[in-house]
Amino acid sequence: MADLFSIFRKSEFLQEVGHIAKFAGRFFSEGFQPRYEFREFIRQCYWVGYKSLPLVGITAFIMGLVLTIQSRPTLVEFGAESMLPSMVAISLVREISPVITALICAGKIGSGMGAELGSMRVTEQIDAMEVSGTNPFKYLIVTRILATTLMLPVLSNLSNAISLYGGYLGVNIRGSVSWHLYWAQVFDALSYGDMVPSIIKTFFFGFAIGLIGCYKGYYSTKGTEGVGRSANSAVVVASLLVFIIDLIAVQITDLLNLT
């Protein structure tokens, strides 16, 4: 009985993966063909990027400050306190800042898209768009996925800057490092091998968040209960995909000797 249940769950998982892959294929086949919904795309960039900036900025600042304060005692113990700015910069830019920003967006943007599109599905607004001759996939899905794909790298880079500023304040809580010296150590420690992979993988983070959020909402069922399930599963699946993409990116950068 347990084996049968396991087989059923595996087949259900593979079906879901196939549906998501088909959904992504439809995005690539329809997303770059006229008609282009520029106004809706700009509106989505505003909601995804600008409206998420306060949450991302506050989190990044606290993240940089706390990481610096927590790392100081260990470095002091080994007599390497002068390496604190370099260590914080590499940790934040390579991994912490992009991943935390993506998880914040998965929770805020992924759930919002799942709930919004799910509500439109169960109230038959999407069906009404199809009847009126509007392509709901291009108007609702393509614009949202493109917006998250393009805005997440912007948010991640802003998060890098804000978290490094938080690190500067953290360094000076119990020490005295000048503004010029701190940033000189930060930029000396960073290289293109740190920045480029960090930026590239955020495009994939954004695409995954937008894809899952739109997929879960677009195919929502069972009324208002289904809307809640769509929002919840969008956050869970998108967050899991962020970690999987990050793992793949780390392996690729390691194979290319960029670490």
UniProtKB/TrEMBL annotation:
Alphabetical UniProt keywords: Membrane, Transmembrane, Transmembrane helix, Transport
Pfam family of the protein (one): MlaE
Q: Membrane-crossing residues?
A: 48-69, 137-155, 162-182, 202-219, 231-252
Instruction: List the membrane topology term(s).
Output: Multi-pass membrane protein
Which interval of the chain is the signal sequence? none
Q: Does the keyword rRNA processing apply?
A: no
GO MF terms held by the record = phospholipid transporter activity
Q: Name one GO cellular component term.
A: ATP-binding cassette (ABC) transporter complex
* Source organism, top-level taxon: Bacteria
InterPro entries registered for this protein in UniProt: ABC_MlaE_roteobac, Permease_MalE
Cell compartment(s), UniProt: Membrane
Family classification: Belongs to the MlaE permease family.
Recorded protein name is ABC transporter permease
Which species expresses this protein natively? Fulvivirga marina
